[in-house]
Amino acid sequence: MKIAVTFKNINSSDALKSHIHKKFDRLDKMLDTPAEAQVVLSVEKLRNIADINLNCDKIKIHAKEETENNMYAAIDALSDNVKLQIRKHKDKQRLHLSGGKESLKTNVMEAEEAVEE
Known about the structure:
Strand order of the largest sheet: 1-2-3-4
Region (Disordered): 95-117
Helix content: 40-55%
Protein name: Ribosome hibernation promoting factor
Keywords: Ribonucleoprotein, Ribosomal protein, Translation regulation
Organism: Desulfocicer vacuolatum DSM 3385
Largest sheet: 4 strands, mixed
Distance between the termini: 51 Å
GO molecular function: ribosomal small subunit binding
Number of domains: 1
Structural class: alpha+beta
């Protein structure tokens, strides 16, 4: 995953960059095609804000997280948010490709339970 990191009202830090790369390289495994991400880290008064725009062939994700603790907590929350959005998109895509039908295995198990009762 190609990640561009921008800092606003905060000093550039290699530790923050490596933390971002560590968190979002894990998400790259969930995507089918290579992705590009623009991450913006900013500080406004007591708020630490992490913002991302993730672009892939079929997926475009925008997420923003704010914390009062520290920037690492904002990055972790942002990573979890993006992970959920990717999983949600993949589930919708899988459901669409299956024609909106449930799997045969699920239907057979439900039928067996109904017969047993």
